[in-house]
Amino acid sequence: MTIGTDIHAAVAIVQHGGLLAYPTEAVFGLGCDPSNLVAVERLLTLKQRPIEKGLILIASDLSQLDDYLDPIPTELLARIHPTWPGPITWLLPAKTNVSTWLRGEHLGLAVRISAHPTCQILCQKLGHPLISTSANRTTEPAARDAPTVKAYFEDQVDYILDLPTGGRAQPSEIRDALSGKTIRAS
Predict the structure, then answer these.
(1) Are residues 82 and 76 in contact, defined by beta-carbon separation less than 8 angstroms?
(2) Is 97 exposed, middle or buried (0-12, 13-18, 19+ CB in 10 A)?
(3) Of the candidates 181, 166, 176, 180, which has an alpha carbon nearest to the alpha carbon of residue 28?
């Protein structure tokens, strides 16, 4: 495990199938390339996260999610657009070929256009979305700094990008775009 502030090194880790811990709006996230199912499986195992829960993808812009989402109707875009980039995660209809490792037991996929500068840069440099799940095992509180990530995972994460979180008190709110219901309040 390496701890550093080099975004290029972090991008290279993800490109080569590794696991990355990085700052988000409120906590440190664990991420990998969502199209690399070996990396996704490694992340789920490390986190001890049931596959049924699904994962969140973050992106720097909506076009990065085109391979994962069904076309978004205009009325849903009107609801979502004012909240992005920002700390709202939306559950949107996923393409049928999206892995259940990403969707979990849902027909939709949880996605967010992050306003956090580090998340934006990572996704821009990768040219695709990044998995974003809190950096902790399912029973532990989410890590809010690099030393806590290191204590939780020792050498099981390939790189910890030690930059500041966005300072929010709570992780992103999750809303269902079709029903309008809040799944997780912020």
Answers:
(1) no
(2) exposed
(3) 166
Number of domains making up the chain: 1
CATH number at 142 reads 3.90.870.10
pTM as predicted: 0.94
Number of residues that this document lists for the chain: 186
Give one DSSP letter per residue of 140-174, joined into a string: SPPP-SHHHHHHHHTTSSSEEE-------SSPPEE
Q: CA torsion sign, 5 to 9 to 12 to 18? A: negative
Q: What is the pLDDT of residues 115-171, one digit of tens each?
A: 999 999 999 999 999 999 999 998 899 999 999 999 999 889 999 999 999 988 888
Q: Say if strands 28-31 and 130-134 run parallel, antiparallel, or are unpaired.
A: antiparallel
**Contact assessment for residue 172 and residue 186, using Cβ atoms and an 8 Å cutoff:** yes
Backbone angles phi, psi at 8, to 5 degrees: -65, -40
Distance CA 145, CA 15 (A): 23
Three-class SS state of 40: helix
**CB neighbourhood size of 60 (10 A):** 21
**Total Cβ atoms within 10 A of residue 127:** 10
What contacts 144, CB < 8 A, 6 or more positions away?
A: 26, 27, 28, 165
Report the alpha-carbon distance of residue 41 to residue 154 in Å, rounded.
Answer: 18
